From TrEMBL:
Protein name: Propionyl-CoA synthetase
EC number: 6.2.1.17
Gene behind this protein: prpE
PANTHER family assigned: ACYL-COA SYNTHETASE, ACYL-COA SYNTHETASE SHORT-CHAIN FAMILY MEMBER 3, MITOCHONDRIAL
UniProt keyword Heme, yes or no: no
Amino acid sequence: MDTDILFKQSIEDKENFWEKQAKEIQWFTFPQQIISHDKNEYPQWFSDGQLNMCYLCIDKHIEDGFGDQTAIIYDSPVTNQKRTYTFDQAKEEISKFAGGLVSLGLKKGDTAVIYMPMIPQTLFAMLACARIGVIHNVVFGGFAPHELVVRIDDCKPKALITATAGIEIARRIPYLPLVEKAIELAQDKVDHIIVYNRKLVDNRNEMFEGLIDYEELVQSSEPADCVSVKSTHPLYLLYTSGTTGKPKGIVRDTGGYATALKFSMKYIYGIEQGETYWAASDFGWAVGHSFSVYGPLINRNTTIIFEGKPIMTPDAGTFWRIISEYKVSTMFTAPTAIRAIKKEDPNGELVKKYDLSHFKKQFLAGERCDVATLDWFEEHIGVPAIDHWWQTESGWPMLGLMTSDSNYKIKRASAGKPIPGYDIKIFDENGYELDAHQEGYLIIKLPLPPGALLGIWNDNERFHSSYLSQYKGYYFSGDGAIQDEDGYIFITGRVDDVINVAGHRLSTSEMEEIVSSHPDVAECAVVGIDDELKGQIPFAAVVLKNGSAITEQEVEKDIIRMVREKIGAVAFLKNAMVVKRLPKTRSGKTLRKLIRTLLDGKDFQIPSTIYDEKIIEEIQEKINDYRA
Ligand code: COA
Ligand code: AMP
């Protein structure tokens, strides 16, 4: 169907449009109420429908006669392992693990934290939770104990499911010491800690008392059936960075999400059932949830779990090897991964080694994709590279192209057009809609379509203040954007304290809290500066306390260590510079954008609100010294 017509229907006749899409998935009870509102007047989808996500991903395909189709491919160059699981085999493992969770007393509505690397057992744990209505919270394996503690204290899990270790290229990252530390620091006790022992090395000294062995639990348990849950039952919580130090627990529903993912696979990715689809993201991010697990499995696609990096495992040809070996038709990754490959293999020599004849489309998201990277991709890979834009909050793309329509047209540097269901506008500060080519705030008229966030876990006030209070009746995305006369939208970047480092969303406020806790630091500003490879990296400008005797080198070293210890190595704060003063407005607000512009070496206008212009010169000199 013509994309413009589909979009128009989704906005002008929403209920009929989404009722029709909901019929594309199997419900235990089909909803009578297509759209309703919660007690705070926030829209909800299909509230009286009943279904089960694990059933849709696994059991349904077995009932339809596809039990022996490969559901999951695990490819781990870092451990030299490869394995496939059919839908039948996946069901066996998932239902027994779900039975194990039930035997431990977990039930519908409880929460479980999953802190695991890129192995099949992570996906099994997610689906086992979904099977019995347990709300999962996957925590990215690269986060430090403090991040785990924040999540444990906020969602109070009955179980923590983990593994003995992750692997970063050739470095083993033991998880159990991190888990032990987190458990010690958390205010709330976790009843059960389940560990998948990867047996990579003799790890007896890392084990601590009371751990439950994942494999023993699976082997000793009876399979559990799928329980019926309400459409609005939370499938998972996924914490993401906001404008304060504390991450926000985004709540995802079940029925709206399943409908939206089925719609995405069919129309946005334009993929047929049975084909192989690969989203090379960690399970710990939104992409990992929606397009490494739930989306492809709902659509009966084979999904790939890749444990490695785009480069060095063993080389920058890994992506092309996987695409060729498993006949991947559609792939999804972050531009930073392509930039890393391009840097290692500028002439595309490694690409030539592989047969990419099954490869049809490359999707990109997570950060802006620069044109040079698109050029490289087009020259050496030769399949369309399609940028699309979304957030943890939406759970599925909000801007993009409907590639099921063969007439789709890519406009370079644009993240596409609004996806059906998303009534996107560009507003100025005062709430006036801007004309084409004017930069403003990207906002979305409520109701958001099915699949988008239900709220923030345990914090309705923050939900409203973060997203709904800026423009009444609209969702505030936190991104700036420009629309052209053809309706294509160009994302210009975050307008808040969130930065994107190598496709990882991080909060500069959280880093500022850590830096400020240094005993010699009086105040600081952490900003995201441009980086050729990672897109952005954080940079700290710090003011020392009067009389402090610490050297610049010492304070920089301390700050780097503290951020690494608290957030994790992914935060990638590697630079801190001591300044005499921070530039501020007359009302005392730090001019972070000015600091960022100075560090990026870009042209700037002196803000009219600045308290003392001389600080600009001071900082400029300091930057020159620091860089020298
Ligand atoms: N566990 C432990 N540590 C981890 C980790 C994990 N799961 N993931 C990253 N790290 C560590 C790295 O080892 C590195 O540590 P180091 O500073 O001691 O070397 C640090 O965190 C920074 O990692 P990263 O930014 O990932 O850099 P990299 O050089 O290891 O890899 C890329 C660069 C581009 C290959 C990688 O960042 C990537 O694939 N990004 C895509 C992210 C993505 O898919 N996002 C989802 C949105 S689509
Ligand atoms: P996350 O919630 O981790 O998915 O990060 C969401 C943020 O990543 C968005 O608010 C954007 O700032 C950025 N982002 C995601 N996709 C794109 C894209 N295609 N182009 C530019 N920025 C993007």
